[in-house]
Give the backbone structure.
Amino acid sequence: MGRVICIGNHKGGVGKTTTAVNLSAAFAVAEKRTLLIDSDPQGHSTIGMGINNGRIAGNLFNALLGDASIDELIVKGDIDCLKILPSGLELIRAEAELISRPGKETVLRDLIKTHKDRYDYILIDCPPSLNLLTVNAMAASDSVLIPLQCEFFAGQGLIQFLEIYKVLKRIFNPEMQVEGILLTMVDKYDEVSEKIAGETRRRFNGMVFNASIPRDRLLHHSASSGKPLLLQDIASAGARAYLDLAKEIMSGDLTLKKDFSNLHA
């Protein structure tokens, strides 16, 4: 049975999509059957995988509304083990379309539950906001991976997101755990960045991945080329960091998965 991991943080610009694209590729390079679901209407994971919305039969929106099956919408990636369920601007309408449907918060979970045995990992890229799409993603997931940009106020934003996590866990998905906190845009030459990384590791002891993602201009520009960085420059610092993260998750030796029930700001 595959693991469903959503990549979430209600703050934008923290590296969610970069992580979704490159971690998916890292799993696939390791020959793990991987499905990336883009649940952000901006469709950045879709674009980052080189998929042209104008040339596909449909996207996640059509699956949520029951107009098409997931199998009809999945697109093959550039790596044999990688598949993508794309997104599109139509997803903006999803909340309005689903608002009166019973069980609207668990539509995505119902859609993918029959696919879990087909994949080793299913990753869901969440939108940078708390809306019905985010609720669906977290309700469908076994765990949530939280990217955290190393900048001022990052810790307070993390506390806020963990409070959201606890509420959604209690109401919609009691089995959901936290996969871990991923430090992103770490600049070892910047005193502030290094200070925040160190404080986060101390404050959230045992909850932060050993792997961290450096501030890497190649990562920043890789999305525009429509390919994960691993397929462009596997020796780059950013690509190696995501390979290390994939290994850490696959190892099964993590001391993570905390419920944060006793953590307060």
